[in-house]
Amino acid sequence: MRKNRFIGNFVGNLAALPRQDSHEGLPLALLPEEATLMVEKELADFKEVPSLSTMPADGIRQESQSYRNEILSEQVGLLKDMRKKEIEKNIKQIVEGKKRKRMTDALEALTDEELEKQILKEECDRVQDPKPSVLSVQIFTSDPWIKLDDYVDAVWRYPETDEDRLHYFVYKDLWEQGFFVTSGKKFGADYLVYPGDPVKFHSFFIVVCVDKKRQFTPAEIIMRGRLGQSVRKTFVLAYLSDDDKVNYQSVQWTGK
């Protein structure tokens, strides 16, 4: 996708850092403009799984619960093994602690090696299964029960409205000029336009799609121009002509 200049936007948490929101991870959300253009350029296709819109059958539910129980059981075994290895690693300190306390005559009669083995066995036998509340719940990135044959062609109606057409034509025109285009919501715009990969470059343009008949007040024009100046970008208004050709009008603030 990225080599074809389709960026998308990560909207999920990072699995390794779930309690932060500075960086996002999978899934990746695409703008409708991106998805439509990818299909138009034969780089993707729209598919859906009808069964996901209905309640799962009893067999699927039972299979899912069985698989979940199997995963939790594996976790229990791994956690118990980790606890036993921790005991083995610290067995000498545990034995010394036992020696400082009163031991039964049976334990006192054992040699140091026998005592260590006996205490190791007792401590390992005391290891209990962890509570379900401390176990991790696996979140699947794909459905393990969906087969390739379950996918059918999806109906995609974008762009439907005049506003949709305006946005799509503007996005497509910028993309065909070789720019990288992402959502411009954080600047109150429609798109941010980059000369190269956003990882390496800052955006050059803030683009807002407008109806060609839209009239702006002087205050609006000044506001948009000052916004572009404050973030060191050029503010651009994009609109369609009568023949659906995309036109651009830049707004730059030169006041003090």
Automatic annotation (TrEMBL):
EC number assigned by the record: 4.6.1.16
Keywords carried by this UniProt record: Lyase, mRNA processing, Nucleus, tRNA processing
Naturally occurring in which organism (per UniProt): Menopon gallinae
GO BP term, example: tRNA-type intron splice site recognition and cleavage
Record domain tRNA intron endonuclease catalytic: where: 166-248
Protein known as: tRNA-splicing endonuclease subunit Sen34
Similarity field: Belongs to the tRNA-intron endonuclease family.
Coarse class of the protein's main subcellular location: nucleus
Pfam families: tRNA_int_endo, TSEN34_N
InterPro entries per the UniProt record, alphabetical: tRNA_endonuc-like_dom_sf (IPR011856), tRNA_intron_Endo_cat-like_sf (IPR036167), tRNA_intron_Endonuc_cat-like (IPR006677), tRNA_splic (IPR006676), TSEN34 (IPR016690), TSEN34_N (IPR059049)
Quaternary organization: tRNA splicing endonuclease is a heterotetramer composed of TSEN2, TSEN15, TSEN34/LENG5 and TSEN54. tRNA splicing endonuclease complex also contains proteins of the pre-mRNA 3'-end processing machinery such as CLP1, CPSF1, CPSF4 and CSTF2.
Alphabetized GO MF terms: nucleic acid binding; tRNA-intron lyase activity
CDD domains in the cross-refs: tRNA-intron_lyase_C
GO cellular component, one term: tRNA-intron endonuclease complex
KW Hydrolase (keyword) present: no
Function: Constitutes one of the two catalytic subunit of the tRNA-splicing endonuclease complex, a complex responsible for identification and cleavage of the splice sites in pre-tRNA. It cleaves pre-tRNA at the 5'- and 3'-splice sites to release the intron. The products are an intron and two tRNA half-molecules bearing 2',3'-cyclic phosphate and 5'-OH termini. There are no conserved sequences at the splice sites, but the intron is invariably located at the same site in the gene, placing the splice sites an invariant distance from the constant structural features of the tRNA body.
Locations listed in the record: Nucleus, Nucleolus
Stretches assigned to the TSEN34 N-terminal domain: 2-46
Membrane spanning stretches: none
Active site: 194, 202, 233
